[in-house]
Design a protein that fits this description.
Length: 718
């Protein structure tokens, strides 16, 4: 079959795949945004209609529009979803998986779920594959994937050049394995589907169209890209982010995940850089002086002098905000010699005569150039592109100069023609990207120089040290791998992917890889963020437990935990020291119960007491302290932008309050009371209108109206 063959319809590609595979299809697709939804839907429908076709889909993070949990939520969510997701084509197989209704001849195996979305699907739970992200390409290849399909971007001026764009991470590792099997005689088909709105990312993500057998460029396939709207960041989340931001070391590497805690970390890191006086006031008010020694040793409170380098499996809107905010500005280079000299402070990452002299003094560069050395210097911007060697002389345009970097005339001519940052520097290495629509727009509009400094690349490069290890160690100095967990144990294990009963919430992804790296890299730390407590149905519960039936990160890899109450540095500590540190950052409502379990297990002295400074870890005390600051500056609800209008923001707070504060019994009681209570209907008229409750029809709508008014009144100051 001709490589890179353009097909003008999805159905044509489906027919070709069925014909060439004989109907035995094992389809591999990227996680998240990179799925060619129209192609896979057409293939799914053909298989669903023909039992002779066997279709197994291997993928992860199948994205679906948010589903409402109640009629009241639906009144809020449906108009919002219609506006944000537009004509996004949903995945047919995901709908069937949610209903446990896949046809017998179709299987869907995923290694990561949209968090919490498939807890009720037996089909999804039974076919989940637990793999570290770096092992996914290996595991898909071993499963016999024979069709690879992916959404790609295209350049209008170079239609034969494609970009793996949002998802090069597994594809760049998997496709060579598949091609090796093809060379050995197996039938392998690679399919690309072009999307005009997908941001074109260069560097490692840029490939020739011949990498794919079929390139679908069909009308009607450029439907809305899936986006993840920025969600509210609560005070609890802000304080976790504030605490964690003190551990980021200037001149280091930063990796973060998605979600409210990551957004909070980004906000306070930007405060540290641009509004340092306010930042330090916050640290003082919330008692971070208790951790001054740790902060001084591992992070800092000052603005960044050198800046950070970003390296994260997920390139997030937050990381882009740090690039735009000038915090991520430390460039790394693929040349081990150059990177080592920069790290040592010998070489400045600037194209100048001083940099040429630094290379000469370090013994890396002779005064006399050969063709290879000239090309190397040109790749770094340390020699003009037009320079060439001829008959032992250096030619610069019409000038003929001595081939001698110490010669005055040669130096003057070179110095007048070079400048700016060294070429080839990378600010950000990412594996995949996913985020709000504004993030995609920002990527589409990146200036060429900034776009060139962002390299979407192999997951094997980002998530592990193996391969080019000496270069990675130079680039990844003082790394901070910052991820989230929903539960931690008092002995330092962490849970972030699976519930105690075995049901998978999301997946391990690359978290274990990053924690492991933190223990292997000099100066690196793994930082796990979690909320100290949660509330559901009016009941509060601790997120720090004595034990849990499953762990994502074993306690022998414990390092740093951060909650809204502080920081626990537990690397290399005794079990008694770990218990004490974890109890210090727990909510005070649960501290004594944790200590009692530790005493019973003999893990802490029977007379141990929580230090005075940590005995008042309560939400009320934090809220009181936060009230002394301008919320819009210190603790904005949407620090990275908002897809909700002002009315929707108020409604979101109210609906969240209803879900968190009221148990089923309390909800019904609240409803009964609300029926007979008057609410501030005039003040909340726009909110009632948005929810379709300006006028009510029947008892149910009257109940909804009163519940909503009660919740709006309760969250008036939120």
């Amino acid at each position: 079959m001709e490589s890179g063959r353009r097909v003008a319809s999805v159905d044509e590609a489906v027919e070709e795949v069925i014909h060439r595979t004989g109907g035995d299809i094992r389809l591999g697709m990227p996680l998240g945004l990179g799925k060619p939804n129209q192609f896979v839907n057409a293939l799914y429908r053909r298989a669903a209609a023909d039992p002779a076709i066997s279709l197994t889909i291997y993928t992860a993070l199948s994205l679906g529009k948010p589903a409402a949990g109640s009629d009241l939520e639906a009144r809020f969510l449906n108009p919002f979803a219609e506006r944000v997701f537009g004509d996004y084509e949903e995945l047919d197989y995901l709908k069937a998986v949610r209903r446990n209704a896949l046809p017998d001849n179709i299987r869907v195996c995923e290694f990561f779920f949209q968090p919490g979305s498939l807890l009720g699907s037996d089909t999804a739970q039974q076919h989940y594959i637990s793999s570290n992200y770096t092992h996914v390409a290996r595991d898909l290849n071993a499963a016999g994937v024979n069709v690879a399909a992916q959404l790609v971007a295209v350049r209008v001026d170079a239609p034969d050049t494609l970009s793996l764009a949002c998802n090069p991470e597994v594809s760049l590792d998997l496709l060579p394995m598949l091609m090796a099997r093809r060379d050995a005689g197996e039938t392998i088909i690679a399919v690309a589907q072009v999307h005009a709105e997908l941001p074109f990312m260069g560097n490692d993500a840029e490939v020739d169209a011949s990498l794919f057998d079929l390139v679908i460029d069909a009308p009607g396939t450029d439907t809305r890209l899936f986006s993840t709207p920025n969600m509210p960041v609560a005070l609890q989340d802000h304080l976790v982010g504030l605490n964690a931001s003190t551990l980021v070391r200037d001149g280091g590497l930063l990796q973060i995940g998605i979600g409210a805690l990551g957004d909070a970390l980004v906000h306070h890191t930007l405060l540290r850089e641009h509004h340092n006086d306010l930042y330090r006031e916050l640290l003082g008010e919330f008692g971070l002086q208790q951790f001054a020694e740790l902060i001084q040793g591992e992070g800092g409170c000052a603005p960044f002098e050198q800046g950070l380098y970003g390296c994260s499996e997920m390139f997030t809107h937050g990381l882009m905000s740090l690039v735009d905010g000038g915090v991520i500005r430390r460039r790394v280079y693929d040349d081990e010699c150059v990177q080592a000299l920069i790290n040592q402070g010998v070489l400045s990452p600037e194209a100048s005569l001083d940099s040429l002299d630094a290379l000469r003094e370090a013994g890396v560069l002779d005064d006399t150039l050969d063709d290879g050395t000239l090309g190397w210097l040109q790749s770094l911007g340390l020699m003009p592109d037009a320079a060439r060697l001829e008959a032992g002389r250096l030619l610069l345009g019409s000038e003929t100069l001595a081939n001698d970097l110490s010669a005055t005339g040669t130096r003057a001519a070179i110095g007048a023609r070079i400048g700016g940052p060294l070429r080839g520097g990378t600010l950000m290495h990412g594996g995949f990207f996913l985020g709000p629509a504004a993030f995609y727009q920002r990527l589409r509009e990146l200036p060429p120089e900034q776009a060139a400094a962002i390299n979407m690349t192999h997951i094997s490069f980002i998530n592990q040290l193996y391969g080019d290890e000496s270069l990675k160690r130079l680039q990844r100095r003082d790394a901070r791998f910052i991820n989230t967990a929903f539960t931690a144990t008092a002995l330092g294990a962490a849970v972030s992917d699976q519930l105690e009963d075995g049901r998978v919430l999301s997946g391990v992804g690359g978290q274990y890889n990053f924690v492991s790296q933190a223990h292997e890299l000099a100066g690196a730390r793994s930082i796990l963020l979690l909320r100290a407590w949660r509330e559901r149905g009016g009941e509060a519960a601790s997120n720090i437990l004595w034990s849990y039936g499953h762990t994502t990160i074993p306690r022998h890899l414990r390092d740093i935990f951060v909650t809204e109450y502080g920081i626990a540095d537990v690397r290399g500590k005794t079990d008694a020291e770990v218990v004490a540190a974890m109890v210090n950052i727990a909510d005070s409502r649960f501290q004594e119960a944790l200590l009692e379990q530790a005493r019973k297990a003999g893990k802490i002295a029977h007379d141990y007491q929580v230090p005075e400074a940590f005995r008042y870890n309560t939400p009320e005390r934090l809220a009181e302290r936060a009230g002394r600051f301008d919320k819009a500056r210190a603790f904005p609800q949407f620090p990275l932008g908002c897809d909700f209008n002002e009315v929707e923001q108020r409604l979101l707070n109210a609906l969240t309050w209803l879900k968190q504060k009221a148990s089923q019994k309390e909800y019904l009681e609240l409803g009964r009371r609300a029926l007979w209570q008057e609410g501030d209907e005039q003040h909340f008229a726009p909110h009632l209108e948005r929810m379709g409750l300006a006028q009510t029809d029947g008892l149910r709508e009257r109940l909804y109206r009163r519940l909503l008014l009660a919740a709006l009144a309760a969250t008036r100051e939120a």
